[in-house]
């Protein structure tokens, strides 16, 4: 897939929206940043750590190197999240919260306007980006892991830029340009980043990609899958931003973190199982056609099986770890390419 698709109207919408989003973010953030640029610089190491840590985590979830064939869509998703998402979300959240305040009153709005607006606006903005990239990359994106990776990268782009805005706003709390506030905000955002936008949009991305790609499913089934996963991400976003009981604020955050990790683990276990089903089907398809022998390919199904294969080679006396790792990666990439050409879908 090429990122440059000038014949597609959707591609132009993607580019224009990203441009307008970054311009809108700059205009909205500029007055604050002019006053708190020192705090942005103080928070920058935490922002970069967020990018590195959770970028590694998203890619680490891909056990069979599916991301190698979809690098361009992943970059496009991250770009949308970083450029289009925050600027649009800032503008829309401000207006949404005023509407909620006018309709429900100050007392209700104080606690609930932020979680309601964020769950609606931010998940919608990120979801539109995932949809646009999934549509542009339909030949490549058709499995649950593709949706998880694309959603994770899109959410991570949003998360990284949002951290910059939090660092900028933290400086407004200190009249003497004390960097302590920005450092505290950056550290807390990094610490709680495990349950932030990358996770929420990764869950929603599964449903979006499957709804776009699985033309072999009935429309009702595609709609059900989309609604289930998208609303799961939005509900978790609402739950995270909802006010904690005044008596147990820290305990509530810890409990939510554990709960969210468990929910994500359940979904991810299912995604991983579908990947292994797909991998076995592709290997079987290749073997029956005489394209490849079954023995070595069957050892690639998991990191544990690949490690066992390397240990067996080491015990055999003919062992070069670097060469063997390179060969296993090459074979995994070959299976991904072969699987794409075979047309095999996850059951």
UniProtKB/TrEMBL annotation:
TM annotation in the entry: 12-34, 40-61, 73-92, 186-211, 223-240, 246-271
Keyword Repeat: no
Single GO molecular function: peptidase activity
Alphabetical list of Pfam families matching this protein: PrsW-protease
UniProt keywords, alphabetically: Membrane, Transmembrane, Transmembrane helix
Protein's UniProt keywords contain Repressor: no
The organism's place on the tree of life at top rank: Bacteria
Name this protein carries in UniProt: Protease PrsW
Organism whose genome encodes this protein: Nocardia ninae NBRC 108245
